[in-house]
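User: Second chain of the day. Same drill as before.
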Amino acid sequence: MSECLFCRIVAKEVPARLVFADDRAVAIRDINPQAPTHLLVIPRKHIPTLLDLADDDASLMGHLQLVAAKLAREEKLEERGFRVVINCGEGAGQSVFHVHVHLLGGRPMRWPPG
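Assistant: Same format as last time:
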């Protein structure tokens, strides 16, 4: 997936502010943060959208959520709260078509989002 920005970040072809890496995922600081803390948790496996998930991706998606929770604790977000978001499709704000989890915190979150 040489045209995919996140695949290129995972492959270390494009620089990013890495905050986490293991054999299944990486996490980086968003270059256009929407909150004081805005991290992206990205699977190493290329999956364009949530609609492209297969049954065998369930463990990977759970892992992304666990990584988000770990990073929320490390960023000291647990007391004030935080938001975890996965956008699906252009109309929902997905701009990079590689599934990823947004971890947002450090400011009050409003409802409804958007």
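The mean pLDDT is 96.

User: Great, on to the next one.
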